[in-house]
């Protein structure tokens, strides 16, 4: 389904909630570009640097005690990698492009664009453990530790760059527990919500 209006779908997610797969299916359903980990490659190409160099500092927490910011320029490599991604997304939005973006504080950095629809996907821990155990070949205890570690990292990254809080409902337009409807059911439900939001856009 193509739309003539600018639509930016921001999807935050808990690790193991299938939020990324849901984002992929929504992007395909609406015929939109998807920006996730590939964002680093796009940014690297535009700055003529190696994406492997940027990946080292991707989604790292801002540390105000180790690095300084002077006249808008930070001495922190992690801050600069984050800023390059934020600016890339803003440039795409400023050009009027429509796209789906996973994470990257997008619900906050793109909040001034009227076409933004921000969604957060969570899941029941037992379902997340089962999914991560299957995908990564981990025991249940290993999967649970992995999930908590990844989410802790995401929260620190998000909250160090935003005034809003990661995963808190008021940060997003809509929060959805993917365990209640499953992946396909979640995609269908979100698509109905997105369609209604698009219809109300001026």
Description:
The structure is a single chain. The protein has 202 residues and is of the alpha/beta class. It is built from eight helices and seven strands; from the N terminus they run βαβααββαβαβααβα. The strands form two sheets. It has a five-stranded parallel sheet with strand order 2-5-1-6-7, with helices on one face. The protein has a two-stranded antiparallel sheet with strand order 3-4. A hairpin with a 2-residue loop joins β3 and β4. It is globular, with a radius of gyration of 17 Å. 35% of the residues are buried. About 7% of the residues have low confidence.
**Order of strands in the sheet with most strands:** 2-5-1-6-7
**Class computed from helices, strands and strand pairing:** alpha/beta
Q: How much is the radius of gyration in Å?
A: 17 Å
Output the number of helix runs.
8
Order of helices and strands: EHEHHEEHEHEHHEH
Number of strands: 7
- Percent strand: 5-15%
Regions with little confidence, pLDDT below 50 for 5+ residues: 61-75
The portion of residues assigned to helices is 40-55%
Shape: globular
Main sheet summary:
5 strands, parallel
Q: What do the pLDDT scores average to?
A: 87
User: Termini separation (Å)?
Assistant: 18 Å
């Amino acid at each position: 389904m193509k739309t003539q209006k600018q639509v930016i779908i921001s999807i935050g997610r808990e690790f193991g909630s299938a939020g990324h797969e849901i984002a992929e299916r929504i992007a395909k359903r609406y015929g939109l570009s998807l920006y996730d980990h590939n964002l680093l490659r796009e940014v690297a190409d535009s700055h003529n640097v190696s994406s492997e160099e940027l990946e080292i500092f991707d989604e790292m927490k801002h540390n105000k005690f180790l690095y300084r910011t002077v006249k808008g320029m930070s001495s922190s490599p992690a801050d600069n990698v984050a800023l390059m991604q934020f600016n890339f997304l803003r440039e795409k939005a400023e050009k009027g492009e429509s796209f789906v973006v996973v994470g990257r504080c997008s619900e906050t950095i793109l909040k001034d664009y009227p076409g933004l629809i921000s969604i957060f996907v969570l899941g029941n821990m037992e379902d997340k453990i089962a999914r991560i155990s299957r995908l990564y070949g981990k025991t249940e205890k290993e999967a649970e530790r992995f999930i908590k570690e990844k989410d802790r990292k995401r929260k620190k990254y998000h909250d160090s760059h935003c005034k809003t809080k990661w995963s808190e409902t008021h940060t997003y337009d809509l929060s959805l527990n993917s365990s209640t409807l499953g992946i396909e059911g979640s995609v269908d439900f979100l698509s109905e919500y997105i369609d209604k939001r698009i219809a109300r856009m001026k």
